[in-house]
Amino acid sequence: MAKKIQPIERCDCDVIHEEIVNKVREKMPQEETLYDLAELFKVFGDSTRIKILWALDESEMCVCDIAFLLNMTQSAISHQLRVLKQAGLVKSRREGKIVFYSLEDEHVKQIFDQGLIHISEESK
Amino acid sequence: MAKKIQPIERCDCDVIHEEIVNKVREKMPQEETLYDLAELFKVFGDSTRIKILWALDESEMCVCDIAFLLNMTQSAISHQLRVLKQAGLVKSRREGKIVFYSLEDEHVKQIFDQGLIHISEESK
DNA sequence: AACACACTTGAACAATTACTCATATGTTTT
DNA sequence: AAAACATATGAGTAATTGTTCAAGTGTGTT
């Protein structure tokens, strides 16, 4: 079912502000970069995943440890770990029956910190 | 319809790793803080909103300018601006018929930058 | 080999979400 | 006052998502 794409009607102020719009358009990053950025933040946009990442920043943990820590089922945690792994945020290591997860890189905490700065600013 | 809450069964390795789990639990931030953090990142987790924020980081713009820039309807942009405003990320200023939007604070770019660092690391 | 354990995975379902469309509000122009 | 313009908003809808449940895989133990 192809969606009808109607061209967006320009309004008067677009014409007036044309210079600004063109300048901004030039400076915008590639469409794909912005999409990837949104995809990354989408991964951070769930409190379960935030908790998992925060926990793994403290210590490598196995799936059932995380499940117990967050009081959730192993299945739910496993699903979320999959999302985090696909996003390149965590890695896993098998030791017999047990699979240990840990953070893939150190940027995670820095992204959190920037978010926390905003939150604390806002509550002033 | 009350959902049946069954306590999460502890597995053997929880008992073994009890120390680690307890240590991590102590260090975890408040439940509410982690929830707020997820809510903030959820706002960044959409490419339309990312584009709007990026555009506003370049220049104050009115709704129809943004709509034209992103080739989307004014209504769609207006809805997203509302989300961004509620998250405390943008502010608005009326000048006659026209409403100009701009970034509320300077952290936005820093959060973007941290995200971009992760993306560029990943593609190595 | 049979079983138990730690984990993964696919389907199903409820909840959320981004957009569209129609309509409403607020401002300026005629 | 009426019309035009810029924006906001509410309802509706298709798509996405987080969890549960049931069944599967891989590893160690008996």
Automatic annotation (TrEMBL), chains A, B:
The keyword Disulfide bond is assigned to this record: no
SMART domains, per database record: HTH_ARSR
GO BP, sorted A to Z: response to cadmium ion
Classification via Gene3D superfamilies: Winged helix-like DNA-binding domain superfamily/Winged helix DNA-binding domain
Limits of the HTH arsR-type domain: 29-123
Keyword terms: Cadmium resistance, DNA-binding, Transcription, Transcription regulation
Pfam families: HTH_5
SUPFAM superfamilies cross-referenced by the UniProt entry: Winged helix' DNA-binding domain
GO MF terms held by the record: DNA binding; DNA-binding transcription factor activity
Xref: NCBIfam families: HTH_metalloreg
Name this protein carries in UniProt: Putative transcriptional regulator
Lineage: Bacteria, Bacillati, Bacillota, Clostridia, Thermoanaerobacterales
